[in-house]
Amino acid sequence: MIDTSSSDKNVRHLANTINRQLRKLRTERRRFQQGDLELKNAVTNISHDLRTPLTAICGYLELLEQEEKPETVSRYIGIIKDRVDILAQLSEELFRYSAIISTKDNTIREQVIINTVLEESIAAFYMVLTERHIVPKIQITETKVVRMLDRSALSRVFSNLISNVIKYSDGDLKIVLSENGEMAFSNMASGLDEIQVGRLFDRFYTVETARKSTGLGLAISKTLVEQMNGTISATYENGRLRICIFFSDIA
Residues 251, 198: contact at Cβ < 8 Å? Predict the structure, then answer.
């Protein structure tokens, strides 16, 4: 609060007005913090509550698939299984997201060679990219880019970004890692627009072209990058989506 000993009534009035606004701001902040905590707890509880029945449903569906049945029934079971898989994916993403936001102060930092982690992540998605006829153009500096990061979190970020490309790409992917530590993932994505790109990092936000998306992948990436004191942003120009990540030098 602002304390003033001035005898000027205008100054005192200004101080009182500012103090009223500060008290309102404090109240709103407490409400926000409480609501955010309740949301985190709700997400954690929901993810746990969903996993048990979904596991049972998946088990019974597998048993049904082994039984003799008419073609129509098989088709219906296939549709149900597809929907259950989506629910299971959402449940798993909810669980991971709640775990990430609950342990934000417990990240394990070590010297990480970003080049190596990025190469490993690209290699892990090679088959999936090939199936989608996506041939990535990769430009990784030969200079070792070393930062104090959480290796597993960084790997998760890269995996989420490449998965995002698989959802939205028109068939191309360009990955660049510069000497200064800036990374850029870009691809043509005619199914998006500037408004959608502006919301890609929002929790649970999905676009029409990604029906099986949980809307948490990029939100998780943003949370992880910021926990490691990095920045992540998305731009959209001439039909091309570009997501940039930057971690400042460990020095």
Answer: no
State which amino acid sits at residue 167.
Answer: K
8 Å CB contact between 189 and 234: no
Alpha-carbon separation of residue 246 from 47, 112, 182, 217 (angstroms): 31, 14, 5, 18
245 alpha carbon, distance to own chain's centre:
13
In this predicted model, what pLDDT tens digit does every residue of 215-246 receive, in sequence order?
577 888 898 899 899 999 999 998 899 999 99
pLDDT at 209: 45
Query: Does the CA dihedral 167-189-228-99 come out positive or negative?
Result: negative
As a whole number, mean pLDDT of residues 87-94 equals 74
- CB of 133 closer than 8 Å to CB of 150: no
Q: Give the separation between CA 183 and CA 174, rounded to whole angstroms.
A: 10
**pTM exceeds 0.90, yes or no:** no
Nearest 5°: phi and psi at 106?
-115, 25
250 or 242: which leads in pLDDT = 242
Of the candidates 166, 165, 207, which has an alpha carbon nearest to the alpha carbon of residue 184? 165
For residue 160, give every residue at least 6 positions away whose Cβ sits within 8 Å of its Cβ, in sequence order, or none.
217, 218, 220, 221
How far apart, in whole angstroms, are the C-alpha atoms of residue 134 and residue 165? Answer: 9
Output the pLDDT for position 242. Answer: 92
